[in-house]
């Protein structure tokens, strides 16, 4: 499948590139937050836009022709830097670090004002986004990966903006389908529950490419 690119980079160089990716995405994330919450007037907005346009021009000097894709080293170390949830170089991504334990996976992330839906609460679509990645990565880590076929979310109560915790585990595997369940909670109280059915697509049946099997160093 296109978009999966083997690109062996030695650890020192990779650490350096990761630092650069995180730094620029962090700056833009800060800019997004500042933009959502700014109260400055027309003159400051005009000046800010001029500086942002100048920064954009610098970044445009050398661009990929399309999306980042998923890049991996021969040892399986994976980079999903454009990913909307995990992406180290994607300012839209919170970004999330998913931790994998033997039986379950989890994440903790602070969702700020740029993820607002109802006043002061996280947008339901953002929670679905987080669930999709958390449950999908959980299936992948357990060696039963798939594309999201169906994702259901039950919103039990509003999720306040701020720190959230997500947890997920594989419930069962039926042929090419992996059923994963998860929760999002705030201060120990579950605010949303989800079930995902992850299906190993026809094109990946047979041998699952190693790059898709394990979430090693993703994001
Ligand atoms: C290997 C890749 C790892 C990547 C992990 C990244 C995690 C991130 C999660 C995502 O965001 S993925 C992006 C959002 N999802 C998609 O874009 C998926 C788009 N849909 C498809 O590609 C296909 O419809 C899909 C792979 C889900 C199923 O197509 P197939 O042609 O492989 O399914 P097939 O017809 O062979 O059916 C296999 C089984 O799945 C069932 N099935 C098919 N589509 C389903 C569906 N949508 N929901 C639930 N079950 C479904 C189907 O009934 C059948 O059940 P049984 O085995 O019991 O007979």
Automatic annotation (TrEMBL):
- What keywords sit in the KW lines? Apoptosis, Cell membrane, Cell projection, Cytoplasm, Fatty acid metabolism, Hydrolase, Lipid metabolism, Membrane, Transit peptide
Subcellular localization is given as:
Cell projection, Ruffle membrane; Cytoplasm; Membrane
What membrane topology was assigned to this protein in its record? Peripheral membrane protein
The reactions it catalyses are: hexadecanoyl-CoA + H2O = hexadecanoate + CoA + H(+); dodecanoyl-CoA + H2O = dodecanoate + CoA + H(+); (5Z,8Z,11Z,14Z)-eicosatetraenoyl-CoA + H2O = (5Z,8Z,11Z,14Z)-eicosatetraenoate + CoA + H(+); (9Z)-octadecenoyl-CoA + H2O = (9Z)-octadecenoate + CoA + H(+)
Q: Which CDD domains match?
A: PaaI_thioesterase (cd03443)
EC number(s) per UniProt? Answer: 3.1.2.2
Domain (Thioesterase): residue spans on this chain: 120-188
Gene Ontology BP, a term: fatty acid metabolic process
**What would be an example GO MF term here?**
hydrolase activity
The UniProt entry's GO CC annotations, sorted and at most eight, read:
cytoplasm; membrane
Please give the coiled-coil regions recorded for this protein: none
The record's annotation in InterPro entries points to:
HotDog_dom_sf, THEM4/THEM5_acyl-CoA_thioest, Thioestr_dom
First-tier enzyme category under EC = hydrolase
Q: Which family does it belong to?
A: Belongs to the THEM4/THEM5 thioesterase family.
User: What's the protein name?
Assistant: Acyl-coenzyme A thioesterase THEM4
Which species is this UniProt entry from? Gordonia lacunae
């Amino acid at each position: 499948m296109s978009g999966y690119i083997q690109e062996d980079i030695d650890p020192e160089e990779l650490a350096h590139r990761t630092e650069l990716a995180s730094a620029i995405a962090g700056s833009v994330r800060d800019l997004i937050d500042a933009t959502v919450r700014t109260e400055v007037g027309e003159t400051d907005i005009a000046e800010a836009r001029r500086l942002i346009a100048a920064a954009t021009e610098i970044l445009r000097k050398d661009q990929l022709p399309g999306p980042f894709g998923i890049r991996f080293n021969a040892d399986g170390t994976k980079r999903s830097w454009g990913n909307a949830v995990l992406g180290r170089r994607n300012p839209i991504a919170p970004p999330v670090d998913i931790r994998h334990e033997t039986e379950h996976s989890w994440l903790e992330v602070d969702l700020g004002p740029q993820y607002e839906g109802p006043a002061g609460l996280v947008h339901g679509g953002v929670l679905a986004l987080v669930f999709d990645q958390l449950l999908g990565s959980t299936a992948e880590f357990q060696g039963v990966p798939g594309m999201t076929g169906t994702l259901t979310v039950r919103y039990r109560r509003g999720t306040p903006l701020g720190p959230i915790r997500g947890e997920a585990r594989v419930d069962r595997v039926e042929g090419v389908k992996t059923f994963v369940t998860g929760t999002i909670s705030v201060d120990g109280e579950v605010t949303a529950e989800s079930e995902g059915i992850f299906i190993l697509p026809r094109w990946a049946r047979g041998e699952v490419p190693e790059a898709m099997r394990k979430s090693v160093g993703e994001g």
